[in-house]
TrEMBL record:
GO terms for molecular function: ADP transmembrane transporter activity; antiporter activity; ATP transmembrane transporter activity. It comes from the Eukaryota. PANTHER family: PEROXISOMAL ADENINE NUCLEOTIDE TRANSPORTER 1. The gene is PNC1. Keywords: Antiport, Membrane, Peroxisome, Repeat, Transmembrane, Transmembrane helix, Transport. Solcar repeats lie at residues 5-94, 104-184, 203-298. This is NAD(+) salvage pathway protein.
Length: 319
């Protein structure tokens, strides 16, 4: 029971953290995604930097369009983080129980995180694809969730799944680094808890923010070319030739997209938007983990209260 309860607390707090951080930083996410999705030769690029996206929205009077797809993104973030944190927490505790060890090694931690990430990617890929299409649609012309998913074949809703599975290495690296930093901090002041149901230890908001930023920075730098490739694959717009005429959508494969980026933008194209990605993902991850650490204890108390209420309910009926 304690195993499932802890996993549920981790999942709930992680999902709430994702929901809040996604909403706060969504305009930045839209600007970043539109900038990354553009795949043209350097001298024909529409956006020279991420600020050009914001200026375009302002000039067209479509500032609120920076929030297009927010509902879908929040739904995707909530579900994905719930599944990920539940799976990560559950598999980690299962590993410790079966191995009868008191700590988990880096290799095992990476494997567990990758497994949780793979389950998450498969379950939420259609929502991720729809969200990317909404963000990269023309300002004010974004389609709804169902219309975005119904355009094209069933397999189109899973555009980028292969590279999403590859990118499970990103959260694997991130949460492994975060856990290692967190465990080192807690190791010096661990307390023996004698409560019937002990609550998990939490670090300070500042430490969670700092460790979250550092861990996500490392993970993003290592996996960024794959991140750029995924955005291009899921973009709602087709590529354009050098004279500005629309071209048929490129092959929705990793190899085809990589070749397209290489031919149009060169080696630096694989790192286009890295600074914007770093800013957005580091802030999102840091906020998520900071909120998660603070929500964890509250959620734990509520879960215990609910559990005790359910256990004592039959006794109340006797009165």
């Amino acid at each position: 029971m304690a195993l499932d309860m802890e996993s549920l607390v981790e999942a709930t707090s992680g999902a709430v953290g994702a929901l809040v951080s996604t909403t706060i930083l969504y305009p930045l996410d839209t600007c970043k995604t539109r900038y990354q999705a553009e795949n043209r030769a350097h001298h024909h690029q529409r956006y020279r930097n991420i600020s050009d996206v914001l200026l375009e929205a302002i000039s067209k009077g479509q500032v609120l369009s920076l929030y297009q797809g927010l509902g879908t993104k929040n739904l995707q973030s909530f579900i994905s983080q719930f599944i990920y944190f539940y799976g990560y927490s559950f598999f980690k505790r299962l590993y410790l129980r079966e191995s009868k060890s008191k700590s988990i090694g880096t290799a095992a931690n990476l494997l567990i995180a990758a497994a949780a990430g793979a389950c998450t990617a498969i379950a939420t890929q259609p929502l991720d694809t729809a969200s990317s299409r909404m963000q990269t649609s023309d300002f004010g012309k974004s389609k709804g969730l169902w219309q975005s998913l119904s355009d094209g074949s069933f397999s189109d809703a899973f555009d980028g799944l292969g590279i999403s599975l590859l990118l499970t290495a990103n959260p694997s690296i991130q949460y492994t680094v975060f856990d290692q930093l967190k465990n080192r901090l807690l190791k010096s002041n661990m307390k023996n808890q004698t409560d019937e149901v002990s609550s998990p230890e939490a670090i300070s908001a500042f430490s969670a923010f700092a460790y979250g930023a550092v861990s996500k920075c490392i993970a993003t730098c290592l996996t960024y070319p794959a991140i750029r490739c995924k955005v291009v694959i899921q973009s709602a717009k087709s590529d354009e030739s050098e004279d500005g005429k629309p071209q048929p959508r490129p092959r929705k494969s990793i190899s085809g997209t990589l070749c397209s980026i290489w031919e149009r933008e060169g080696i630096l194209g694989f790192f286009k938007g890295l600074q914007a990605q770093m800013l957005k993902t580091v802030l999102t991850s840091a906020l998520l983990l900071m909120i998660k650490e603070k929500v964890t204890k509250t959620t734990w108390v509520l879960m215990i209260a609910l559990r005790r209420f359910m256990l004592t309910r039959p006794n109340l009926k006797s009165f």
